[in-house]
Amino acid sequence: QVQLVESGGGLVQAGGSLRLSCAASGRTFSNTAMGWFRQAPGKEREFVAAISGSGKSTAYTDSVAGRFTISRDNAKNTVYLQMNTLKPEDTAVYYCAARAFVVSLNKYEYPHWGQGTQVTVSS
To answer: Which of 17, 65, 106, 123 has its CA 20 to 30 A from that of 57?
Structure first.
């Protein structure tokens, strides 16, 4: 069983930055693709970013490309989401997710999820 624990959320003003972390345990981390998703009130959970096990491949949704950066430290079994130039529309609960090997943008292809961390961006 894979356990995922997110941290780093909080309240920030528009234009500010936050870094989310997700600590993983329970399987070989370097063989695990990781994704970040978010869910705003009343909306479906949506893809934000993903990274392959090696860290060589990444993917972003268009609305965060150029502002957010996903990275990982396999020695620490941790994946990060650096969020810059935050906007009020980035307000959501952010979840990290894990799946074997291959990056996916599809939330239904991730069997393992963290509990989420709240990000609130004030205008």
So the answer is: 17
